[in-house]
Amino acid sequence: MVSQVLVAMDGSAVAEQALRYALDVHSAADVTVLTVVGEPSAMFGEATAIALADDPGESMLEHARPVLERAQAIAAEYDAEIATEVDTGHPARVILNRSGEFDTVVVGSHGGTLADRVFVGNVARKVVDQSPVPVTVVR
Protein backbone atom coordinates (compact mmCIF):
# COMPACT_ATOMS: atom_id res chain seq x y z
CA MET A 1 0.00 0.00 0.00
CA VAL A 2 1.23 3.48 -0.87
CA SER A 3 1.17 5.82 2.11
CA GLN A 4 3.63 8.56 1.08
CA VAL A 5 3.53 10.18 -2.39
CA LEU A 6 5.88 12.83 -3.77
CA VAL A 7 4.44 14.93 -6.60
CA ALA A 8 6.82 17.20 -8.49
CA MET A 9 5.18 20.39 -9.78
CA ASP A 10 6.66 23.09 -11.98
CA GLY A 11 3.65 25.23 -12.86
CA SER A 12 2.86 23.42 -16.09
CA ALA A 13 -0.55 21.97 -16.98
CA VAL A 14 0.90 18.46 -17.09
CA ALA A 15 2.28 18.89 -13.55
CA GLU A 16 -1.23 19.84 -12.43
CA GLN A 17 -2.46 16.63 -14.07
CA ALA A 18 0.17 14.72 -12.10
CA LEU A 19 -1.19 16.11 -8.84
CA ARG A 20 -4.76 15.30 -9.86
CA TYR A 21 -3.67 11.75 -10.70
CA ALA A 22 -1.96 11.34 -7.32
CA LEU A 23 -5.02 12.64 -5.46
CA ASP A 24 -7.30 10.31 -7.45
CA VAL A 25 -5.24 7.13 -7.32
CA HIS A 26 -3.63 7.56 -3.90
CA SER A 27 -6.52 9.21 -2.07
CA ALA A 28 -5.60 7.66 1.28
CA ALA A 29 -1.91 8.57 1.06
CA ASP A 30 -0.07 11.58 2.42
CA VAL A 31 0.79 13.72 -0.62
CA THR A 32 3.73 16.11 -0.66
CA VAL A 33 4.08 18.56 -3.53
CA LEU A 34 7.65 19.59 -4.27
CA THR A 35 8.52 22.51 -6.49
CA VAL A 36 12.09 23.35 -7.43
CA VAL A 37 13.16 26.92 -8.13
CA GLY A 38 16.46 28.42 -9.14
CA GLU A 39 17.17 25.72 -11.66
CA PRO A 40 19.97 26.26 -14.17
CA SER A 41 18.92 28.02 -17.35
CA ALA A 42 20.57 29.58 -20.38
CA MET A 43 20.72 33.00 -18.75
CA PHE A 44 20.88 31.96 -15.07
CA GLY A 45 18.01 34.37 -14.42
CA GLU A 46 15.98 32.78 -11.63
CA ALA A 47 18.95 31.16 -9.89
CA THR A 48 20.90 34.42 -9.91
CA ALA A 49 17.92 36.46 -8.69
CA ILE A 50 17.43 34.11 -5.74
CA ALA A 51 21.13 33.98 -4.85
CA LEU A 52 21.50 37.77 -4.95
CA ALA A 53 18.33 38.55 -2.99
CA ASP A 54 18.63 40.12 0.46
CA ASP A 55 16.74 37.10 1.83
CA PRO A 56 17.31 34.12 -0.50
CA GLY A 57 14.85 31.96 1.45
CA GLU A 58 12.05 34.49 1.03
CA SER A 59 12.97 34.99 -2.63
CA MET A 60 12.79 31.23 -3.18
CA LEU A 61 9.31 31.12 -1.62
CA GLU A 62 8.18 34.09 -3.70
CA HIS A 63 9.24 32.35 -6.91
CA ALA A 64 7.43 29.17 -5.83
CA ARG A 65 4.26 30.85 -4.53
CA PRO A 66 2.16 30.56 -7.74
CA VAL A 67 2.88 26.82 -8.04
CA LEU A 68 2.19 26.16 -4.36
CA GLU A 69 -1.04 28.18 -4.41
CA ARG A 70 -2.22 26.25 -7.47
CA ALA A 71 -1.36 22.95 -5.78
CA GLN A 72 -3.39 23.95 -2.71
CA ALA A 73 -6.32 24.97 -4.93
CA ILE A 74 -6.27 21.60 -6.70
CA ALA A 75 -6.10 19.78 -3.36
CA ALA A 76 -9.10 21.81 -2.15
CA GLU A 77 -11.09 20.56 -5.16
CA TYR A 78 -10.48 17.04 -3.83
CA ASP A 79 -11.10 18.09 -0.22
CA ALA A 80 -7.58 16.85 0.48
CA GLU A 81 -4.74 18.06 2.64
CA ILE A 82 -1.29 18.21 1.06
CA ALA A 83 2.13 19.21 2.26
CA THR A 84 4.14 21.59 0.11
CA GLU A 85 7.89 22.01 -0.08
CA VAL A 86 10.28 24.21 -2.01
CA ASP A 87 13.89 23.52 -2.83
CA THR A 88 16.53 24.98 -5.13
CA GLY A 89 18.71 23.36 -7.72
CA HIS A 90 18.37 21.08 -10.70
CA PRO A 91 14.84 19.59 -10.58
CA ALA A 92 15.84 16.00 -11.38
CA ARG A 93 18.55 15.95 -8.73
CA VAL A 94 16.32 17.49 -6.08
CA ILE A 95 13.47 15.06 -6.82
CA LEU A 96 15.85 12.09 -6.79
CA ASN A 97 17.45 13.21 -3.53
CA ARG A 98 14.00 13.23 -1.90
CA SER A 99 12.43 10.23 -3.64
CA GLY A 100 13.76 7.62 -1.23
CA GLU A 101 11.65 9.15 1.56
CA PHE A 102 8.43 8.23 -0.30
CA ASP A 103 6.68 5.09 -1.52
CA THR A 104 6.23 6.51 -5.01
CA VAL A 105 6.87 9.61 -7.11
CA VAL A 106 4.43 11.17 -9.58
CA VAL A 107 5.73 13.54 -12.25
CA GLY A 108 4.38 15.14 -15.38
CA SER A 109 5.75 13.87 -18.67
CA HIS A 110 7.21 17.26 -19.51
CA GLY A 111 7.12 20.80 -18.24
CA GLY A 112 8.59 24.21 -18.65
CA THR A 113 9.49 25.82 -21.93
CA LEU A 114 11.27 24.25 -24.88
CA ALA A 115 14.39 26.22 -23.97
CA ASP A 116 14.27 24.85 -20.41
CA ARG A 117 14.06 21.30 -21.77
CA VAL A 118 17.04 21.88 -24.06
CA PHE A 119 19.27 23.29 -21.31
CA VAL A 120 18.01 21.42 -18.28
CA GLY A 121 17.20 18.06 -19.84
CA ASN A 122 14.22 15.80 -19.48
CA VAL A 123 13.46 15.71 -15.76
CA ALA A 124 10.85 12.96 -15.95
CA ARG A 125 13.22 10.68 -17.86
CA LYS A 126 16.04 11.15 -15.35
CA VAL A 127 13.71 10.51 -12.43
CA VAL A 128 12.31 7.34 -14.03
CA ASP A 129 15.81 6.07 -14.81
CA GLN A 130 17.34 6.76 -11.40
CA SER A 131 14.61 6.73 -8.74
CA PRO A 132 14.89 4.11 -6.00
CA VAL A 133 11.07 3.96 -5.78
CA PRO A 134 8.35 3.48 -8.42
CA VAL A 135 7.62 6.52 -10.58
CA THR A 136 4.39 7.30 -12.41
CA VAL A 137 4.67 9.64 -15.39
CA VAL A 138 1.44 11.46 -16.20
CA ARG A 139 0.63 12.93 -19.62
Automatic annotation (TrEMBL):
Residues 1-139 form the UspA domain. It comes from Halomarina salina. InterPro entries: Rossmann-like_a/b/a_fold, Universal_stress_UspA, UspA. PANTHER family: STRESS RESPONSE PROTEIN NHAX, UNIVERSAL STRESS PROTEIN. It comes from the Archaea. Transmembrane segments: none annotated. Belongs to the universal stress protein A family. It holds the Pfam family Usp. This is Universal stress protein.
